[in-house]
Structure formats: structure tokens, C-alpha cells
Amino acid sequence: MWKIVVSVLSGIVLTLVLAFTYASSLMIKETISPYGVEETVARIQHNIKDAGWELVGLRNPAVTIRNEGANVPDAVLIEACHTDYSKPLIKDDSTRLVSLLMPCTISVYQKEDGRTYIATMNSGLMGWMFGTKVGSVMTKVAKDQKSFLSFNPSKPAPAIIQPKTAKASSGGGGGSLGGGC
Questions:
Q1: Computed over its alpha carbons, how large is the radius of gyration of the chain?
Q2: Distance, first Cα to last Cα, the chain
Q3: What count of other Cβ atoms lies within 10 Å of the Cβ of residue 119?
Q4: What whole-number distance in Å separates Cα of residue 101 and Cα of residue 135?
């Protein structure tokens, strides 16, 4: 009997350790961009527009942090929305809580190795955690999100798009990337 209890408890502990160790890499995807931060942001924005999504925000929280005296690199957040996806979820009381995940946000930043990285939420996996309705919508979001990160190197670098709702730069070296948290 004790062997069974110890085996079950060991299995539970091992499962918890594995879940804790790998959960972040399952929930958030990080990829390396072949371009610098600004060009990556611009290319993603144009891909978002080409996919029929609306750009609703462009923020760089590092600007606010630098205004408080810290020396931090840019971390640009591109925010996009597609009402065909968000409307049915916000319309329904049982799924409105996922509005917390809206708009779809993509982060572009540079690490100490000098490379530019792109972070996206694993929309497909995350969606299914909220049930069938949210999962089916978020599977479509995940497919579109993948197209946002597909770059055509033969196309020249586009200009960054300042969304209508984006805040003006709050200074501190944010330049055209805007600021605020």
C-alpha cells in the first residue's frame, strides 16, 4: 500500500516540477528576428495590416522606466485587434473575462547578446484553457499571429506606423516608438 501512495505522490510531485519548469516556455513563444528592433516592429505592423487587423497601440514601457532614472533597453509592445475575433468573446458574459488578453500584443526587444527577439503569447494553447468557444477563436488568432512574424527579406524596410490611439513619446529616448505603461 505504501508503495502505491509513494508512487502516486512521486508522480504528482514530478508533474508539478515539470509543469513549473516548462509552463512559461509553453505559454509564451520567443523567436529571434533577423532585423533590429525598429525594423522588426515596422515589418510586424505591416504584416498585421496586411492580415486585415487593426493596429490599436504601440507602447514602449522602457521610456517610462528611463524617465525614473533606470537604464533599460527598449521593449516595444505592438497591439492589434480584429473585431471578428474579439466581438463574440466580449459579447458573451461567460467569455468576457478573456478581454484581459485583448488586444493581441507582440513584444519586440533586444537582449544583451545584441539580437532582437519577438515574444508572443501561445494563443492557441492559452485559448483552449478557457473552453471550446475561446479555444476555437484563439486558434484562428494563433494562425494569424504566425503570419505577422513571417518576413519577406526581399521587401525594403517599411516605416513604423503610429496607430491613431498610440500615445506620443514621453521622452527618455523613446523616439518614434512612443511611451507610457
A1: 19
A2: 56
A3: 15
A4: 13
Q: What is the pTM of this model?
A: 0.80
Q: Domain residue spans in the chain?
A: 28-177
Q: Return the C-alpha cell found at 79.
A: 497591439
All three cell numbers of 72: 533599460
Separation CA 19–CA 136 (nearest Å): 24
* Segments in 55-157 forming alpha helices (H): 61-67, 83-91, 123-128, 132-148
Sign of torsion, CA 113 44 86 54? positive
- The Cα 113–Cα 119 span in angstroms is 16
pLDDT, position 50: 96
Contact between 169 and 63 (Cβ < 8 Å): yes
Distance CA 158, CA 143 (A): 23
CATH number of 28-177: 3.30.310.70
d(Cα 31, Cα 12) in Å, to the nearest integer?
A: 32
- Write the single-letter amino acid at 4: I
- What is the per-residue pLDDT across 113-161, written as a single tens digit (0 to 9) for each? 999 999 999 988 888 888 899 999 999 999 999 999 999 999 999 999 9
CA atoms of 17 and 155, how far apart (whole Å): 45
| Pairwise CA distance, residues 96 & 110, whole Å | 34
